[in-house]
Design goal:
Length: 335
């Protein structure tokens, strides 16, 4: 088993997740940039030395979990496949490639059957949204989704986490705005309505990811999706305000019932007792939390939901490891 980008935020969590879920790893091979050779990571109480992520280091690997960014994935994933590995890629590089399944196991695990070596792990904000939307879609057919995200700084990797930490300390110390590090503007005590680059029509690439990936994962091109993605000064846990319009009417009670039965979802929806999901609750958690489920009275068949999940776990490392588990369960590794 190889983990590419093993020293990164997601790579580190992938290794912890393999350990925590007792994944059947015979040998863990952590790969990263050449300058990191000689460093090591801990796995099951042993130290495993970092090697350079290069073609020859994929020899003998069955599964390679990639989390080193799109440039590395575009270059190295086909090479890993050439050496006999199945790649689960966490970057955006292969997500919309028609030959690569884009998988959230609770939603579309069957798509894995069509894989040709590279399987893409969706964008973190999309994963947590579709885990909740799919069970509702199956019952009431979702026609339109309007989502606003509140995304944690760790979604931008280690540099995002450090930016919030340093800027917050500096702001409190000097009592005024600080030079931004890591984001376009100061993120401490601020929100930035801009994630990834701007594209056509004034939308960002992050917003288009939510639009296009949702349709691909749900296997339904007819769902209309529009998104506004916002970075907030939170270390861990993405939150989303999601409004949906369905073909047939579904009451909030019915939605709660179906979600309570859905794998990977925890319903936390008791406003009278001040119970609703918040990002601080997602610390060290695998589940996707949903609450504030209520009717949208402004349309005929509408619901509002508030969805929270840990962006490093279900949004990245956990989903990738679940895909790897499913590959083994279905006997879908390259022979
Ligand atoms: N963070 C999240 O919530 C999240 C969620 C979903 C998806 N993702 C995706 O996951 C990927 C990694 O994100 P991250 O947050 O873990 O970033 P990160 O903390 O910056 O980690 C990336 C790691 O990959 C290494 N690396 C860079 N180029 C490499 C190469 N060519 N070969 C091997 N290793 C290389 C980096 O080394 P240096 O640090 O020395 O450069 C670093 O150790 C990105 O594609 C990101 O979009 C992240």
């Amino acid at each position: 088993m190889a983990v590419v980008g093993a020293l990164g935020m997601v790579g580190t969590e992938m290794i912890r997740t393999l350990e925590r879920r007792n994944f059947p790893v015979h040998e863990l091979r952590p790969l990263d940039l050449p300058e990191n050779e000689g460093k090591d990571v801990e796995f099951r109480g042993q130290r495993a030395k970092i090697r350079t992520a290069s073609e020859r280091n994929f020899k003998g690997i069955d599964i390679a979990l990639f989390s080193a960014g799109a440039t590395a994935s575009l270059d190295l994933a086909p090479k890993a496949v050439g050496q006999g590995a199945v790649v689960v890629d966490n970057s955006s590089a292969w997500r919309m490639d028609p030959s690569c399944p884009l998988v959230v196991p609770e939603v579309n695990a069957d798509d894995l059957e069509q894989h040709r070596g590279i399987i893409a792990n969706p964008n973190c904000s999309t994963i947590q949204m579709v885990v909740v939307l799919k069970p509702i879609h199956d019952q009431a057919k979702i026609e339109r989704v309007v989502v606003a995200t509140y995304q944690a700084t760790t979604g931008a990797g280690q540099k995002g986490s450090l930016a919030l930490e340093r800027e917050s300390m500096q702001f409190c110390k000097v009592g005024r705005a600080v030079d931004p590090e890591g984001f376009q503007y100061q993120i401490a005590f601020n929100v930035i309505p801009h994630i990834d680059v701007f594209q056509e029509g004034g939308y960002t690439r992050e917003e288009y990811k939510m639009v296009n990936e949702t349709k691909k994962i749900m296997g339904d091109e007819s769902i209309r999706v529009t998104a506004t993605c916002v970075r907030v000064p939170v270390f861990y846990g993405h939150s989303e305000a999601v409004n949906i319009e369905t073909k047939s009417k579904m009451s909030p009670e019915a939605a709660r019932r179906v979600l309570e039965e859905s794998p990977g979802v925890v319903v936390l929806d008791d406003p009278e007792n001040l119970k609703y999901p918040m990002p601080i609750m997602s610390d060290q958690q695998d589940a996707t939390f949903v609450g504030r489920i209520r009717e949208d009275f402004s349309i005929k068949n509408g619901l509002n939901l508030w969805i929270v999940s840990n962006n490093i776990r279900k949004g990245a490392a956990l989903n990738a490891v679940q895909i790897a588990e499913e590959l083994i369960r279905r006997n879908l590794l390259n022979k």
